[in-house]
# Entry
Amino acid sequence: MTDIITSSGLPRISSGSRVTLHFAILLETGEEVDTTRRRSAAVFTVGDGSLLPGFEEALFGLQAGDDAQLLLAPEAAFGPHRRENVQLLARDRFSELELEPGLMVSFAAPDGELPGVVTRLFEKTVEVDFNHPLAGRPIIFDVSILAVEDGDPQNVPATS
# Structure
């Protein structure tokens, strides 16, 4: 493994690094969607699947003490909005719910639950968007790197 070390002697984030950081996810408008700043810092190993790959890659080269605002394109964040993930479902599947646009519903899926958002109501059907709510949107990843420990990329689980 080649460690990336700065002139200050501090390791830089690279594959396999163990990273402690605070972050906020912001929309381009500056609206905060999520943050760790009011709770414990996040700790993860680059490549362990804790963060989306695009978020991890944006951190490469940063070191303890760095603060950065990183603009991520939709493809590097929560992915593009895919029309095929918007489905029309029979309205009678929702007989026990008071439906309205914006309502989040959850469906049983082979690998757990699949959340969706009701987007439109029709007489016999309901349009449900199964995209991530932030799909198709650029994201600002506001980070404060607290610690970086060299890691061994051979100890990081392979991702598909």
User: Anything to note?
Assistant: DSSP finds one helix and nine strands in the chain. The two ends are 21 Å apart (CA to CA).
